[in-house]
Write a structure and sequence with these properties.
mainly alpha, 0% strand, 191 residues
Length: 191
């Protein structure tokens, strides 16, 4: 094994590191590398249930590789958010790849965009969903998202980014993923 994560010492994987992988040519090997980095970034030091995730990926490697490549190609082709998300999830929001549920599907899609100026595919996880249900979206599920729900979520945050960017007091273009991160951090600062 080679690369940053092959080192036996503790290493840091930044958001930018993972975005850079999203700019690579699409292949099965690169798709797994992008997924592993997405998992490392998303799980952090806790790495909950990492062994189960990796064991199930290994047990379903061929199918997982096909799905990851298809999802990445869908993102690169500019397919609608719902369509790209549907590659990795069922119509009820469950993961097509065992132990790669909807939250990590959204992380993979987010990073598969690479270094784009305005990401369309955004991260949606339990923390973000819970924070949204408190004030904005009370009927939204917090554990699994149907493709239509993910599409609505991405549309909502992209609209908010446009609205904030148009505010003369802001004086810059705000990205939708900045809005997502602020929603995520709200949970951390409230705890």
């Amino acid at each position: 094994m080679t690369g940053t994560m092959a080192d036996s010492d503790r290493t840091t994987v930044t958001r930018q590191d993972v975005f850079n992988l999203g700019d690579q040519s699409i292949s099965v090997d690169h798709a797994f590398q992008l997924l592993y980095y997405s998992l490392a970034w998303g799980l952090g030091l806790r790495a909950s249930r990492l062994h189960q995730r990796l064991d199930n990926l290994a047990a379903h490697q061929d199918r997982a590789g096909e799905l990851l490549v298809a999802a990445w190609e869908s993102v690169r082709a500019g397919a609608p958010v719902k369509e790209a998300y549907s590659v990795l999830t069922t119509d009820r929001g469950a993961g097509q790849i065992p132990w790669l549920g909807p939250a990590f599907s959204t992380k993979f899609l987010y990073f598969a965009q690479g270094n784009v100026a305005q990401p369309r595919h955004l991260i949606l996880d339990k923390v973000v969903a819970t924070n949204l249900t408190e004030d904005v979206w009370p009927a939204a599920p917090i554990n699994a998202w149907w493709p239509e729900t993910y599409e609505l979520y991405c549309g909502l945050l992209n609209r908010w980014a446009v609205e904030v960017s148009e505010d003369p007091k802001v004086n810059r273009t705000v990205r939708a993923d900045e809005i997502e991160f602020a929603i995520f951090k709200r949970h951390l600062t409230a705890a």
